[in-house]
Amino acid sequence: MEKAGGSPSAGGSYPQKNAEILSSQYGINLFLAGLLLTFAWAVHAVGISKSHLLSYLITLMLIQLLWMLWYLCRSCTQRRLIRDKDTHAGARWLKCGITLFAVITLILDSFKIGYYIDFSNCLSPTEGIFPVTHAVHTILQVYFLWCHAKDIIQSFKTLERFGVIHSVFTNLLLWTNGVLTESKHQLNEHKERLITLGFGNITIVLDDHAPQCNCTTTTLCSVFSQGIYYLYPFNIEYHILASTMLYVLWKNIGRKVEHHQQHKTPFKFHGITVGMIFGLIVLTSTIAIVVVYLIQIGRSKIKSELALTMFYLHAIFVLALMCTAGIVALLIYRLEDRSLDNSKNPARKLDAELLVGTAAGSWLLSWGSILAIICAQAHPKYTWYNLPYSILVIIEKYIQNLFIIESIHREQEKVNDDIKTLRIVTISRGSTLSLTPSYKEIYNGRAARDNGEVPCLFKGSICRRENDGGGGAKEETSQENSLVMHSASDFSFYSSSSVTNSKRRILKNIAAFLFLCNLSLWIPPAFGCRPEYDNGLEEIVFGFEPWIIVVNLAMPFSIFYRMHSAASLFEVNCKT
């Protein structure tokens, strides 16, 4: 039995830890049940339809809506109370990003509602209820994250743990549902493309979930059905961002925070012109490549091979530039002597874990492609470009992860309090010296004007001043030499500061360049430009079904990695 005089922190940690374990197990079981239901619908299991899956998701969203409303009402009643905040969580740029994705998600929901109205004769009512519930859920959740993402909950902790973890896994299930729906659409298009590439030995069976009735307005149905799949990438990113922000909120429940001033790091375009220009060139060229790829792929064997070759050459060039930029940034870090911030920070820890964890998806695909190239008996010409591409994908993520993780753990450089501004000393032939006005502001002193008094500084202390002109040439020479030495030290400090600023400017340009490059590399797989599907070599070596399963499992993590890297690099640019 625990003694009454024991440590309160030790005694109070057991209920909190138990609540954390219980709530996490609740969330995992909630997720596994939904995952199994999603899988059963995907493989057309007997007795499982899409309405069952949507009913489950609607129920989860309604429960989360009730919890968020309760939390918001309780927060309004306790508005006057001072609450702890995690200054590292819920950055403004992250909130703006999730708001943008949420707006596009609302457009997606409106398309789904329109699609249901056109096919209402043969669709389940749940397919109309789901987008309406999802739209309400999206609006309230974004508002909740804007207002309370930084909260450190200290009351009703057990109940709040279950509410927050329920929200985390609800978003993960909605993310899974979006990934699966989008992947099935991409898979159907991929099967049709393989025929044009000459892989006739692969069995083509389209997985069709289209409604079994005619549309009331054909034109609108075509717009809704095609538009939905172009909007899914934004919906997928919205839910994964929401789940990560809610997870940080869950980790912060009951946390003791050290109160210290957090320096704001606004984003500025000044000094990153070079990085932005090169990054925009990459972004523009990538969009052009994706458009040409989607037009050419599947039209004929020659056009498909040219589209794949064009994609690989462009990607190799971009990845080589990114590797070079990352290596330069790491070399600059090696030249600097700055300590790392190892304080407890759930948001920063999650960022690092997500970078490494989601990079594994790309690494899995890359190693599969490398193995297929080595083991394949026949090698079409365009498949050889896949080898350097796959190798560079692995290396680039290694280097970029090192750069981002070290950047977010580096302490921000502090301004030296002893020397706030450069003091410019002009020495004339006489004993009168001219000091900059900033000297008077810092030391609250008064510079001599007409009487010849000269203040001089030695590491913050004031030296003796000559008041009469009869000190002799020796004392005057000694005083001038001291001032010259001190002036030289000031200019030495200025030179060191100039070098530091140059390094910082290079790092900011590298971060800006990599930020735009990651956005560029997010676009191709998110909008259907996936050579892992289309080159056909991996399907021959591993078999069609096994390789498609690997791609469908790994691709969502690869897509998320690029968006998460872009978000992290934006933070690095603000912090540098």
Task: Give structural notes.
It is built from 15 helices and four strands. It has two domains: 15-256, no CATH class; 270-412 and 499-575, no CATH class. Helix 1 (8-42) packs parallel to helix 5. With 576 residues, the protein is mainly alpha-helical. This is OTOP1 protein. Keywords: Cell membrane, Hydrogen ion transport, Ion channel, Ion transport, Membrane, Transmembrane, Transmembrane helix, Transport. The chain crosses the membrane at residues 26-47, 53-72, 93-117, 129-146, 229-250, 271-295, 311-333, 354-379, 510-528, 540-561. GO terms for molecular function: proton channel activity.
Compact overview of the structure:
This protein has 576 residues and is mostly helical. The chain has 15 helices and four strands.
Helix content estimate:
55-70%
Largest sheet: 2 strands, antiparallel
Total number of strands:
4
Percent of residues in beta strands: under 5%
Major β-sheet strand ordering: 1-2
SSE sequence, one letter per element? HHHHHHHHHHEEHEEHHHH
Spatial separation of the terminal alpha carbons: 52 Å
What structural class do you assign from the helix and strand content?
mainly alpha
- The number of helices is 15
Low-confidence stretches: 1-12, 415-470
GO molecular function: proton channel activity
Pfam family, one: Otopetrin
Protein name: OTOP1 protein
InterPro entries: Otopetrin
